[in-house]
Amino acid sequence: MTNQSPIPNLSIIVAIAQNNAIGRDNDLIWHISEDLKRFKALTSGHAVIMGRNTWNSLPRRPLPRRRNIVLTHDACFSDDGAEVAYSVAQVLEMVKDEEVSFVMGGANVYSQFLPFARSLYVTWVWRDFEADVFFPTIDMSVFYKVSETEHFVDAESGLPYSYAEYQRRPQSLVFPNIME
Ligand SMILES: NC(=O)c1ccc[n+]([C@@H]2O[C@H](COP(=O)([O-])OP(=O)(O)OC[C@H]3O[C@@H](n4cnc5c(N)ncnc54)[C@H](OP(=O)(O)O)[C@@H]3O)[C@@H](O)[C@H]2O)c1
Predict the structure, then answer these.
(1) pLDDT tens per residue across span 105-152
(2) Which residue of 56, 91, 93, 98 lies most exposed, with the fewest beta carbons within 10 A?
(3) Which of 20, 22, 69, 179 to mutate to test the pocket of ligand 1 (most atoms within 8 A of CB)?
């Protein structure tokens, strides 16, 4: 796939702490049930793209009513409900006819797909957390914020959070070549 080929409509969906933390010990650091409901509402009916670590971390897999695309380098890997991909280029080809597909992590996969994402659905969790995986800083010369909600407070954990949506700026709609 080259710059001349159409890049599929990819969105990143992620929950990020204010220090950019997104996970620890191959798990999420917080539990915000309203955010999980929103994740389900946004992604249902679409393809979700994830790395093998995130696949392994799911309490229930595959995620129902979604194409579950799992990236790995392991040619022996297979699992019920997982469509296996071995490169970013292969994923882009697999989802080229989808209306929209969601990159759902983890850190390794987010950083590889960020250059191809047209939009970002971010849940900001307004606390710092100790973590071992982080989301890259969002480059505001590439993306702009379309909307951000008020701050909500999770009833169970007391964590403040908000939802923000970012779109790629029109002048940044030139995507890298895929050399894989
Ligand atoms: N806060 C959030 O919204 C959120 C969302 C999702 C995940 N997370 C967190 O993120 C953490 C997991 O992230 P992670 O960075 O450790 O792992 P990851 O991105 O989920 O998976 C990485 C693995 O994916 C495979 N992979 C990645 N790029 C590939 C490529 N180009 N070609 C082939 N295979 C590729 C490799 O698997 P092999 O080793 O099998 O080759 C690699 O080791 C967990 O803590 C999880 O809870 C947070």
Answers:
(1) 999 999 999 999 999 999 999 999 999 999 999 999 999 999 999 999
(2) 56
(3) 22
Render 118-156 in DSSP notation, one character per residue. SEEEEEEE-S----SEEPPPP-TTTEEEEEE-PPEE-TT
* Pocket mutation for ligand 1, best pick of 13, 25, 50, 54 (most atoms within 8 Å of C-beta): 54
Map out the domains of the chain as residue ranges. 10-172
Where does 10-172 sit in CATH, by number?
3.40.430.10
Sort 180 into a burial class: Cβ within 10 Å, 0-12 / 13-18 / 19+: exposed
Look at the pTM and tell me if it is higher than 0.90: yes
> If you measure from the C-alpha of residue 169 to the centroid of ligand 1, how many angstroms do you get, rounded to a whole number?
27
